[in-house]
Amino acid sequence: MGKVQLQISRRTFLKSALAGSAGLAVAGGHAIPAVAAPEGSAEPPWFYRGQIKTTYSVCDMCPWRCGITVQSVGDRVYKIDGNPADPKSRGMLCARGQGGVSFMYDPDRLRSPMLRTGERGEGKFQEVTWPEALDAMAEKLLAIKEQYGPESVAVFGHTSGEFWFADYFAQAWGTPNAAKPSSSLCTSPREEASNLTLGFPVGGHEPVDWEGLRCLTLIGSHIGEDSRNTVMQDFAKAWGRGAKVIVVDPRFSSVAAKADYWLPIKPGTDTALLLAWINVLIAEKRYDADYIAEWADGFDKLAAHVADLTPEWAAAITELDPELIRTTARVMADSLPQSLIMPGRHVTWYGNDTQRMRAAYTVNALLGAYGREGGFYFNKSPYIEAYPHPPFAVAGSAGGCSAEPGAESAELPVGPSGKARADGARTKFLRGATAMQELIEPMITGEPYPIKALIVYGTNLLNTVPDVPRTIEALKNLDLVVAIDVLPMEHVAWADIVLPEATVLERYDELWTVAHKTPYIALREPAVEPYADTKPAWWMARELGMRVGLENYFKWETAEEYINTRLQTIGSSIEKMREEKGIIVQKGKPYFADFKGSSPFLTKTGKIELYSDELALAGQDPIPVYTPTEDPPDGFFRLLYGRHPVHTFAKTQNTPLLHELYPENELWINAGIVAAQGMKDGDRVWLENQDGARSGPVKLKATERIRPDAVFMAHGFGRNEPALTLANGKGANDAQLQTRYILDPISGGAGMRVNFVRIVKEA
Ligand code: MGD
Ligand code: SF4
Fold this sequence. Notes:
The protein has 23 helices and 28 strands.
C-alpha cells in the first residue's frame, strides 16, 4: 500500500461531525446494504460507495476512551460516531474523537518493522520482516536478561494497548520496572491522596455525581480546553441548570469565563487557599457536622491545625482578596452536600502535590460530598475474570490514570528476587506506582542496579518525560531501545528496533473495563485490516513472548480467543457484545445506602482520615501544610502549560484535520508586560529557561486573561522531527523547557511547574 492520501477537507469533516451528533443512522454491528448513488454524481459520497459496515470500538484519541461506532466501506473507514450505548460518549464525540479517521490516515505513519543502520538518533533504518525484527529483539532481550536479570529491562507504556506490554508482558517477563506517564507525570498525587484519605483511588473516571450537583469548584482543571467529552456534556448541563461554579486558576481559562467566581491565584499557593477554606468552614460551623461525626477521623486535630489559617493569612500568600476567599467558602457550604472540588487530572505541579490533593479532599469531606447524591458516587469495577495464566513473576507496578481501581495498580509492587525496585519506590516514595522519570537514572548510572533495555510502547518519550537532555543521555547508554509506535515521533529515531503498530481502528485490544457509577465493559474490534505491514500490540507481545520462553502466558492464539475466554466468565462473547452494541453495563453501589451499614471507606479506621497516621509514621505531615515554592527570578515568568481542545498531549499535532484546526501553539502573556517590553500581540519570540534551554519561535498572545508573573502554552508543539511533516517546527515545546522537576515524596509524582522562562525577541 502506498502513502495514504487524505480525502476529507475540513468542511466535510465538520459537516460529518455535526451529522454524528445529530444521530446519523447506524446499524448496531451489522452491515447496511449499499444504496445506489444519485444519478450523475461524479464522485459519489462515501456512503454510496458500497455496503456500510458498522463496528464497535473505543476512541483512543485521548485516554478518556469514549465508546464509538465506526463505519467503513470496503477496506476504508469513513466515519466515527459516539456509541449511544456507551456511558461515556452517550452518542457524542469531541473534535479529537471525530479526528480519529484522520489520525489513522496520517500519511506520515510508520509502515514496516525496521532495524537501525546509522547511529542512534540519526534515524537511519532498513525495513525488515516481522520475524527478523522480533528475532533480533528476543535475542537481545535474552542476552541482557542472562547478564543483568529480568529487572534490567524497563517498559514504558501508554495509549490503550499499553496493557499488552507495560502490564502483561512486563509482569510475565519479570520486571517491576514498567511505568506509565499517566501515573507519575499526571495523576499519582491525586490517586495516592485518595488512597490515604478514603482508602481507594479516584480511578480513571472522576466519580462526580453530576446530575444533582449544585456547586462545582475547579482548581486548575480547565474543562473545555482539557476537552473530555463526558465532562463537557456534564458540565454544560450542570451550568445550564444554574449550578454555581468557582474556578481557581492564574489564567482566565474557558471555564473561568463560565464561573460565578474566578480566583486568579498566585501559582503554587493553592494549598494555602484550601487551608483557609477549611478554616472558614470550621470556624463558621458551615461544615456537615453529622457527616463528619459519623464518617471522619481526626476532626479535632484538623480544627486545631487550621485555627489560625484565616483568609487574611492565605491572602498574603495567594494574592487573593480575603473576602473572596471567605465568600467562596460560604458559597460552597450553602450547597452542601451537593458541592465539591473536582479532583484534577494532571496534578503533578510543584512536588508537594499529594498534600494539596489531600487538602482538597478534606474540603470535600467537610462538605459531606462522598457517597451522597449530587456529590461523589462510589465507583465500582465491573465483574469479569482475568484470562487464566500462570502467576506472574512480579506484581503490576505501572499504574496510570487509565488503570481502574481494584486493578493491581493500587498495590505496592514487590521487586524481583527481593531486590529493591530501581526507582527505590519502597524507600524513596511512600506510595505510588513506579515513577517513569526515576527509571531514567539507573539507565545512566547503573544504580541501584543497571537498566540496559527500554521498550517504549505508545509513549512519546522526548515530549513527555521532563529533563530531555538526561533522557537522551540514557538512550545513548542503553544496550537495546525498542520503539512501538504508529508515527515517527522524535524518540523513534533513537531506537534500534522499530515496531509499527496498527491503530485502534485496525485491531482488537484488551477489553476496556471501567469503574463507574454503572460499571461497564466495552469492546474494541477492528473496522478494517491493518495498514501496510503494521500489527496490533497483542500480536507483537505474543510473538515476542513465544520467542523468549513465556509460552505458558500466551496459550491463546488470537485476540478473539483471549477476549472470548474472559467474556465467557460473565456469560458473554464477542458475538453477544456486538448484539449489545459493544457495551455491557453492570449494577453499581454508588451511595451509602448501597453498603447496607458497612463502611465504604477502605482506610484502617474505616473512615475518612483527615489526620493520617500513615503519613505521620513516615515523617510526612499528617494534615496538609502549605509549603512555599520558589518564585520566578527577575525577568522570568513561571511556565504554565495545559491542553488545547483539539489536541491531546503531543500525539495529535501531526493529525491533518486537527493540525488544520490549530497548527501551532501561542504563548499567553499578560498584555501589560507585552506593552512594557515594546512587543505586540502576534510577535514571534523565543523562550529561554532558567538553565539556558531554548524553544520557539512562538507567537505571543497578549491578553489580560493571565497574571503578569506567569505565561501559558498548550503542550505538544514545537516539534523537532522532519518526518512529522505537519507538526515539525510549529510553535514552542514545553517539554524542552522543563529541565527541572521536583519530586513529590509521597506519590513519586514529578512536579513540572517549577521552571521559569524569559522572552528572547526573535533576531
Ligand atoms: P502522547 O504525547 O499522547 O503522550 O504522555 P504520552 O502518553 O507519552 O504520546 C502518545 C504516543 O503514543 C505517541 O508517540 C503516539 O504516536 C503513540 N501512539 C498513538 N497511538 C498509538 C497506538 O495505537 N499504538 C502505539 N504503539 N502507539 C501509539 C502523556 C503524559 O505526558 C501525561 S498523561 C501527562 S498528564 C503529562 N503531560 C505533560 C504536559 O502537559 N507537558 C509536558 N511537558 N509533559 C507532560 N508529560 C505527561
Ligand atoms: Fe475520544 Fe474525545 Fe472521548 Fe477523548 S474525549 S476519548 S478524544 S471522543
